[in-house]
Structure of Carbamoyltransferase:
Amino acid sequence: MSRTIVLGINSAHDAAACLLVDGEIAVAVPEERLARTKHYEGYPHRAVDYCLRSAGLADLTAVDTVVINEYVKDDTGLLVRQAGFTGDLVVNPSHHLLHAYYAWMASSLHRPAVLILDGAGYHYGEYQRRQSPMLGPPPPFSEMEESESMYVVRDDEELTLVRKRWGLWASSDPFLRFPSLGHMYSVASEYIFGHMMHAGKTMGLAPYGDASRFPDPIIEYTPDGLVIDTEWITKVPPRSAEPAHLDDICRDMAAKVQAELERAVLYLCRELHELTGADELCVSGGVGLNSVTNGMILRDTPFNHLFVTPASGDSGVAIGAALYGHHRRTGRRVRWKAYDNYHGHSYSTAQMQRAVTSRDVLVDARPVTDLTGQAAQDIADGRFVGWFEGGSEFGPRALGHRSILCDPRPPEMRDRLNALVKFREPFRPYAASVLSEHVGDYFEAPDDDPFMMTVVQVRPSQADVIASVCHVDGTCRIQTVDPDHAGSYRRLIERFHELTGLPLVLNTSFNIRGEPVVETPDDALECFLGCNLDVLYLDGHRITKYVARTAEHPERLVPRLATSLTIRATVGNDGGAATEPRYQCQKKTGHLTTLSAEEYAVLSLMDTRRSIADLAAALPGWTTEDAVHLVADLQERGLVYLARPADGG
């Protein structure tokens, strides 16, 4: 009997691909994980190839249906046809409808209401041209775009539209101004952090601000729905040069848009409940990544069960597209007993060993018989641990397959993790993975959350106990880990519980600032070498590296530039006179770092052969101790790796 094979593609920002075989997700991956560029925009050719290879398909000729979400100006279908695809091609069904399919079918709920909130879908004219279903009454202008959609599932079979709101673009400069909750939040993020994709940072900054310092409302509540002011951002004073967490306007703006978002989402949830009578709610679209707001829904609305798609942003549209294509082709909805979010393929022992062997002068890999016990001991001993197993998580949250872990008890762990491992802003909070049967002992959580999509209150009696996962407002984003959790992550937390009496660990995504979450063993090792992780667990091995500050003979170690690091000296022109040189290095993420003249001199001499002692000898007036201290600083900043000497000593 032939199989039904459907490929879903998101070919816009947060590009991704998902391959569905007979209604089951065979594999799915965001393009950013493979291209190593966050929020990758465009046709996800690497992700498509990854999906085909993982499923054992030679090319697109084996696929029955391809469903594409793309910018209106693009023609991804042409690329797919040129690659040999001859089957049923569906382009740009309603963007919100694809979000809704993902939410509905992944939830396994029978009669949920579905709320889709994001920046914007595409315009009515495009959907009408593509003959998309479930558009509702035509808006006044064909160029109006989706800003909010409500659906409900009737009789466990049919998704139906309840209401859709459309909006017109106000402007694209200054700021992308569109009357949606997602864009309201995004323009604030662009003002505060320089890019609209930094909404997660804005959410983390909000508790430090005072929303009352922006007294004028952004959202008006009318009988016809929400009216969102798009001009408010144009009345704000120019951004200062201060870091966001030190700038009053930035902190207060973050608090303002968070408060406006919370009120609006709760209002819409109550309205949707009144319109449908549903007891269960699914949420998707980029606003669904606001876990603080999600955490209020069960507490402050009549819904008694909530499912938020783990990949609520546009990468999740690829999964929705595949599900929509399957339903369209077969006339049947998929039915999953349970949904997990591990859609990447697993890597073979040979692949992992090759990744380690290619870096054998940089790392020390030793097999471990009691993997979870040793990892739990490392965490209890205060080490930062990289944890890599199985297929990768699809969404932005690390759920125990591509995670960085540490002990949540010491108050300083959060600051050390931000400064030394993630290289990110000091105000950023961290999440906790907690054994599901113990969640009520530490958190005021109304429901389980295996996908880390809600923020809940930490019980006041436990705030000091788990200080590094307790945010400044007494909250924490949580992942509840059930007994049937895939992989050995559950057992690791159980072992940590046995050692310490604490049934939870601090869990953050396995990446550093500016980089996507690691996908491959090579990615994991590069990230491990380029930050201050202490230990990496990979393929049954405990992997360590050479560290200048702790090595017995650091002067014998051989420093080398971190992968893709470039260094440069710039001499300016001041009226014909050369200025003093300015020294910088650029990491693979594109971030520029200022260097001292001494640091530049040392980095310039690294050739993968000279030891630290050799570098000191090549620099007039330098002692070996001087060189060791400077290289240790460079290593802590992720700029150099250290190799053992050629003689292995």
Notes: The CA atoms of residues 168 and 412 lie 47 Å apart. The first helix runs from residue 31 to 35.
